[in-house]
Amino acid sequence: MEITSAVPASVPRPVVVRATAAAAALVTVAAGLGVRSAAGGDVAKYAGDALYTVLIHTLVVLLAPRLRPLTAAGAALAFSWAVELAQLTGVPAELAQRSMAARLVLGSTFNAPDLLWYAVGAALAWAVHSRLRSGGARA
């Protein structure tokens, strides 16, 4: 049995993809806040790193809904790694002292294991995006 879409055929596919990406972004933020409140230490930190990249992936898809899952995941991973590597310069730490938004987006301190967890998040986002794009599960 094939799962059929509840979306009318008259709704353009990019609109559906963008709406799904926006909903996924909200769920990702909620998941991050939930992990932060329910867990502490390394679990919360590294789950947060992975979810950061998932969030970037959803925002990439929101901006470019026709991107393939691997391309969107690669862009999210590249952005996440660039932000982490920028922390080696001290610029994000300086900006984080002036702005809470900069602290949330750019972080402040380089941590090599974060690079691995960003890749985990990109792989998770790719897997979910690929599954959704292919039409979901087949019964």
> Tally the helices: what do you get?
6
- Rounded Rg: 17 Å
**Major sheet attributes:** none
Structural class: mainly alpha
Strand coverage percent = under 5%
Describe the overall structure.
The protein is mainly alpha-helical and 139 residues long. It contains 6 helices and no strands. It has helices at residues 13-38, 41-63, 69-86, 91-98, 100-106, 113-133. Helix 2 (41-63) packs across helix 3, helix 2 (41-63) packs across helix 6 (113-133) and helix 3 (69-86) runs antiparallel to helix 6 (113-133). The longest helix has 26 residues, at 13-38. It is elongated and about 50 Å long. It starts with 12 loop residues before the first helix and ends in a 6-residue tail after the last helix. 23% of the residues are buried.
Topology summary:
Layout: H1 13-38, H2 41-63, H3 69-86, H4 91-98, H5 100-106, H6 113-133
What's a quick, concise take on this entry?
The protein is an all-alpha fold and 139 residues long.
Features:
139 residues, mainly alpha, 74% helix, elongated
